[in-house]
């Protein structure tokens, strides 16, 4: 799957659009300028900084090809392609969106297979049957392959190559790398066995139990996988309302007992009123309402938040600002539709409120949401006369 993905993406972009003269050197420079303006979270990984030099796109890895098509390609390439090439691009982005999912439904896989057939027919029609290479033919077996071995996510080589990168970053002598890495793994295994043993004679090694770990979707139970799938589709159909213990922790930089701005205090009152509907809240030194609870305008501010193996940054932590951009799903005011909103975390903070003889501490994030784009400037791409697709969110 890994090599096939690399082959198809490279063939469509390099062998067709560049070699056939669809994209000129001037076009590539314009594409590069648009790509440089994108702001994406750092965990998505970077793509090469110069795509308009030499052969263009020649040094992309499969992972970078995936990010390029799913994030950058539509905006960067759309104005440089003809109508049929736009169809190829849009169909292929839809195929990529389906194939990279951790959980894929059978109907979605059938849709991907039908779109791959359309892509190959368009390439043959526009550029001749000599452009139909083995990788394009092999892509027609992806659906059948998924029926036999489950989703492509479970057996492609993206994780294998990423692990090679992690192992290559470990200290070694550059002479006998394989034995050194194996000895390191054996040592780690022995330490884990000692930590997990029930012997009371081992003292001090419990400090090593603080090492971060990365979980895998394969460790999820059936119910958790179902909730993961529902959350990725429509939050109105998933049981994610209510409250639970915060599973993560806040990290430095931190500031203790800071004064909150009046705007944030107003938002806090609105938040508490929605959360605790039986209580009345007000700011200090305001009109004294009967049985009201005062919201103290002091809090502890933090720059980062860690949940499991993932760390979120904020605008308050300049070194981690790339991790501050988030997407969040909300149910709209009509109560039915759900939309995804992009925003940037400004900072994290802890705020306490006294309710029913209890002091409750809430861990919150202050986020500034992007303003919605005007309808006239939204990017909708009409491929067929009766079908409108949108690959870009503003």
Topology summary:
Blueprint (H helix, E strand, L loop, with lengths): L1 H17 L6 H12 L25 H16 L5 H17 L6 H22 L6 H5 L3 H8 L8 H11 L8 H20 L25 H12 L15 E11 L2 H14 L4 E3 L9 E3 L3 E10 L2 E3 L12 E7 L6 E18 L2 E12 L11 E4 L2 E3 L5
Parallel strand pairs: 2-3
Antiparallel strand pairs: 1-4, 4-5, 4-7, 6-7, 7-8, 9-10
Helix pairs in contact: 1-3, 2-3, 3-4, 4-5, 5-7
Organism: Rhizophagus irregularis (strain DAOM 197198w)
Protein name: Transposase domain-containing protein
Give a quick set of tags describing it.
394 residues; alpha+beta; 3 domains; 6-stranded antiparallel β-sheet; 11 helices; Transposase domain-containing protein
Domains (count): 3
Give the distance, in angstroms, between the N- and C-terminal Cα atoms.
31 Å
Number of helices: 11
State the major sheet.
6 strands, antiparallel
SSE string, helices as H and strands as E: HHHHHHHHHHEHEEEEEEEEE
- How would you sum up the global shape? globular
Low confidence ranges: 203-220
Radius of gyration: 26 Å
> Which percent range describes the beta-strand content?
15-25%
């Amino acid at each position: 799957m890994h090599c096939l993905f690399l082959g198809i993406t490279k063939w469509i972009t390099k062998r067709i659009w560049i070699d056939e003269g669809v994209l000129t050197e001037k076009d590539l420079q314009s594409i590069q300028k648009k790509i440089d303006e994108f702001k994406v979270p750092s965990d998505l990984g970077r793509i090469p900084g110069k795509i308009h030099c030499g052969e263009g796109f020649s040094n992309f890895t499969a992972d970078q090809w995936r990010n390029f098509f799913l994030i950058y390609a539509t905006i960067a390439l759309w104005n440089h392609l003809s109508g049929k090439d736009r169809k190829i691009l849009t169909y292929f982005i839809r195929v990529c969106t389906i194939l990279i999912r951790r959980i894929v439904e059978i109907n979605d896989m059938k849709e991907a297979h039908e779109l791959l057939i359309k892509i190959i027919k368009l390439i043959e029609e526009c550029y001749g049957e000599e452009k139909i290479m083995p990788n394009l033919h092999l892509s027609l077996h992806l659906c059948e392959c998924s029926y036999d071995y489950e989703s492509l996510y479970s057996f492609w080589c993206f994780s294998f190559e990423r692990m090679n990168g992690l192992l290559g970053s470990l200290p070694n002598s550059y002479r006998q790398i394989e034995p050194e890495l194996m000895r390191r793994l054996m040592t780690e295994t022995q330490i884990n066995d000692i930590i997990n043993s029930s012997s009371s004679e081992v003292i001090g090694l419990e400090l090593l139990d603080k090492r971060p770990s990365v979980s895998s979707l394969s460790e999820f139970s059936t119910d958790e996988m179902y909730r993961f799938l529902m959350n990725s589709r429509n939050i109105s159909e998933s049981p994610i309302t209510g409250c639970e213990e915060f599973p993560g922790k806040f990290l430095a930089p931190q500031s203790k007992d800071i004064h909150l701005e009046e705007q944030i205090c107003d938002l806090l009152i609105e938040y508490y009123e929605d959360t605790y509907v039986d209580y009345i809240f007000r700011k200090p030194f305001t009109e004294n309402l009967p049985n009201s609870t005062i919201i103290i305008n002091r809090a502890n501010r933090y720059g980062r938040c860690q949940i499991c193996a993932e760390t979120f940054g904020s605008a308050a932590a300049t070194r981690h600002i790339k991790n501050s951009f988030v997407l969040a799903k909300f149910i709209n005011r009509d109560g039915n539709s759900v939309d995804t909103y992009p925003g940037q975390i400004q900072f994290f903070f802890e705020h306490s409120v006294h309710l029913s003889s209890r002091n409750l501490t809430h861990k919150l994030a202050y986020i500034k949401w992007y303003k919605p784009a005007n309808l006239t400037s939204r990017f909708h791409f009409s491929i067929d006369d009766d079908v409108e697709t949108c690959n870009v969110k503003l």
